[in-house]
Specification:
Layout (H helix, E strand, L loop, with lengths): L3 H5 L3 E8 L8 H6 L8 E3 L14 E5 L4 H15 L2 E8 L2 E7 L5 H18 L12
Antiparallel strand pairs: 1-3, 1-4, 2-3, 4-5
Helix pairs in contact: 3-4
């Protein structure tokens, strides 16, 4: 098991699945790609080369943990404007958690919950399973 310092440096794999009640005015991938630091690492999972079973709504990314705060802020602003929800599956090393994002979710709280959920999952040794609901 990696110590907390090396675990904080692990790249994080995100799977973002927006659930839309209506067609958004700007899709999530376009929204994220407006920021150049995310353009090369965030891509649509559907279509050419995506994992089987992912719908076109799923977006995946592998990025440094230091980019998470900005990405969560972008996700939260998109969720607020589109009046929708999203689920995020976060994997760091062998540990994976899932969080729900709604219009009531604070992005700083989301980051804290993701960090805590990953730490707790690492400590429990389970490495997967349902994470906390961040939609509070």
């Amino acid at each position: 098991m990696p110590d907390s310092t090396s675990a904080a440096r692990l790249p994080v794999r995100l799977t973002i699945n927006p659930r839309q009640r209506q067609q958004p005015s700007v899709d999530l991938l376009t929204w994220i790609h407006r920021r150049p630091e995310y353009r090369p690492v965030v891509r649509q999972a559907g279509g050419g080369g995506g994992r089987p079973g992912f719908s076109d709504a799923v977006i995946i990314a592998v990025l440094a943990q230091g980019l998470l705060p900005g990405l969560f802020n972008l996700l939260q602003s998109w969720v607020d404007q589109q009046r929708t929800e999203a689920s995020i599956r976060i994997q760091a090393g062998d540990t994976e958690v899932e969080l729900q994002v709604s219009g009531r979710t604070d992005s700083a709280r989301l980051l804290a919950q993701a960090t805590e959920a990953l730490r707790a999952a690492r400590e429990s040794g389970s490495g997967s399973g349902p994470g906390p609901d961040a939609a509070g």
